Amino acid sequence: MITLFGFGTGFGLPEISPFVTKTEVQLKMAGLDYRKEKAMPPASPKGQLPFIVDDGETIADSTFIRAHIEGKYGFDFDAPLSLQARAQAWAFERMIEHHVYWALVGARWVDDTNFAKGPAHFFDGAPDHMRDKMREDAQFRVAENYLLSGLGRHGPDEDVDLAIRSLFALSVQLGDKPYLMGDAPCGTDATAFGALAGILTPFFDSPLRERTEKFDNLTAYVGRMMRQYYPEFAWAPLQQQAA
Q1: Strands of 57-60's sheet, edge to edge?
Q2: pLDDT one digit per residue (tens) for the chain, 243 residues
Q3: CA 197, CA 184: separation in Å to the nearest integer?
Q4: I want to staple 39 with a disulfide (CB 3.0 to 4.6 A). Which of 5, 20, 21, 80 is the partner?
Q5: Which are the contacts of 215, defined by CB distance < 8 A and separation ≥ 6?
Q6: What are the C-alpha distances in Å from 77 to residues 25, 29, 177, 181, 218?
Q7: Which Pfam families did the record assign (predicted)?
Q8: Residues 169, 174, 179, 180: what is their CA dihedral angle, to the nearest 10 degrees?
């Protein structure tokens, strides 16, 4: 059986990391049995989550995990798509992972209130005399990466403005379809769902979340994907809609 290593439930989400969520949903899409274990990034060969162990083979990085699933198990995540649509799906995936994701990082890690509420607790188990320093160092490293991504070079309103342009593109692509590329889910839906759910979780307050909530089709899309792939999870926005 495949073992998937991730952060686990938290921040109002079935999985804290959008990249682990991507891989977990793709495992579900492929109908593969797996078990899940908690880990922290230093345990991974590439220093990031997710990674999987499959028959003694360790594969790190969600994109390479997808390639492993396709190669070993013969599952084509983009089977319904034409060659042109496959290329478009890949382009949207790159936009999500290299632009939208960093907006999410800024909202979680760079905003001091959200950092204290969320990621700072990753270090709760550290020795008392090291805990504050580890938190400070981690936030600094992530903020530095945020700067290098490009978004962090802009003001708080400007970075959200740029992220919203990418989210607008996703909203237009989705339209009134059930999935990004049509009537059936593809691999990029797992990527989009992980990032959008991470932004929309009510656990964190942010201008990014507030403005993303205005895209009705994206919020409805996350609700559908949550029901389909995590039916046992109580997704708070759905509860709020029903109230």
Answers
A1: 34-38, 2-6, 51-54, 57-60
A2: 999 999 999 999 999 999 999 999 999 999 999 999 999 999 999 999 999 999 999 999 999 999 999 999 999 999 989 999 999 999 999 999 999 999 999 999 899 999 999 999 999 899 999 999 999 998 889 888 888 788 778 877 888 999 999 999 999 999 999 999 999 999 999 999 999 999 999 999 999 999 999 999 999 999 999 999 999 998 987 666 555
A3: 19
A4: 5
A5: 167, 168, 170, 171
A6: 11, 8, 18, 12, 21
A7: GST_C_6, GST_N_4
A8: -30
Cα–Cα distance list, 14 to 71, 120, 181, 232 (Å)? 27, 19, 24, 9
3-state helix, strand, coil in the chain (%, to 5): 60, 10, 30
Q: Which amino acid is at 227?
A: R
Write the CB contacts of 63 (distance below 8 Å, at least 6 apart in sequence).
Answer: none
- As a whole number of angstroms, the distance between CA 152 and CA 130 comes to 28
What is the C-alpha separation between 118 and 204, in angstroms, rounded? Answer: 8
Describe the crossing of helices 83-95 and 187-200 by its angle, rounded to 10 degrees.
30
Identify which of 32, 33, 36 has the alpha carbon closest to the alpha carbon of residue 20.
Answer: 36
Q: Can the peptide bond before residue 50 be classed as cis, meaning omega within 30 degrees of 0?
A: yes
Residue 16 contacts residue 8 (beta carbons within 8 Å):
yes
Give CA 112 to chain center in angstroms: 21
Residue 196 to residue 18: CA distance in whole angstroms: 8
